[in-house]
Amino acid sequence: MTRAVLCLALVACLLARPAAAQYQVFHGAVVSGGGVASGSHVVHHTIGQPVIGVSIGADNYVKAGFWYCAGISSTVDVAITSIFAELREDAVLLSWSVSAPGSFEGFNVYRSPDTEDAFERINAALLPASGTASYTDETAEPGQSYRYRVGAASGDSEWYSVEVSISLPPKPLALHQNYPNPFNPSTSIAFYLPKRTQVRLGIFDVRGALVRMLLDEVQGVGNHIAHWNGSNGAGVPVASGVYYYRIEADKKIITKKLVIVR
């Protein structure tokens, strides 16, 4: 391979490098015959290639770096080569790829509000390395922006991916259809609150008279479920027929219909 071809290959690698700073290269990992000579995030005179002398950045550079792209897994303990974040209904799905599987014990997922610098781990336990390359964050709140990163753990050490950011669209007050419907003897009513607020959730008959108040209290942001056992405020089972359930929250009112069959 000519020097010109090597230079073109090197430039292509550098331009395409998706996450060069993710690679942790240890000092003196290879001391002869090419490979890593010194430093962190540095590759010198790779095997069989002349020194081309191309450098990038203050502490991420490569000399004769054709094999920097071609054989990176041989010079690192772990490299998270890509990480993506996408919306899946009300959750954030993170997925990532690694170039050196098997050299670590598992993964941790970290999240930070977009306006803050501190990251906090959101997985309860270390995610196993075998077969794991994704994580669903179901605690992300609509209308918020977050930054994520993944850490690959090995013993007392951990290596981090680059950060990815994502913004969740706001979600309005929602009242879902009860389940089951028709029902006997009980049913569940799910609703979503966009913020912490006072909530009134009641059951009404076809004339609009209150049958039973299920909730009248402050509830936090997020998904909630209330249950109705088909009885009125005095605890007496109501007759079969059509009823209405109504939620009042955040200065809004939503009403839906349900049916009880005895």
Number of DSSP strand runs: 18
Class per helix and strand makeup: mainly beta
SSE topology string: HEEHEEEEEEEEEEEEEEEE
Main sheet, how many strands, which sense, barrel?
Answer: 6 strands, antiparallel
In round numbers, the mean pLDDT is: 77
Oligomer: single chain
Number of helices: 2
Based on Cα principal axes, name the global outline: elongated
CATH topology of the largest domain: Immunoglobulin-like
Q: Cα-atom Rg, whole angstroms?
A: 29 Å
Fourth-tier CATH superfamily name of the largest domain: Immunoglobulins
What does this entry look like structurally?
- The chain has helices at 3-16, 66-70; strands spanning 42-43, 61-62, 80-88, 91-98, 106-113, 120-121, 127-128, 134-137, 145-154, 157-160, 164-167, 174-175, 187-193, 197-204, 210-219, 222-228, 241-249, 252-260.
- The chain has 262 residues and is mainly β.
- The protein has three domains: 3-74, no CATH class; 80-167, Immunoglobulin-like, CATH 2.60.40; 174-260, Immunoglobulin-like (Sandwich).
- Strands 5, 6, 7, 9, 10 and 11 form a six-stranded antiparallel beta sheet that branches. Strands 15-14-17-18 form a four-stranded antiparallel beta sheet, with no helix packed on it. A three-stranded antiparallel beta sheet has the order 3-4-8, with no helix packed on it.
- The N and C termini lie far apart (84 Å).
- The model is unreliable at 1-58 and 60-78 (pLDDT under 50).
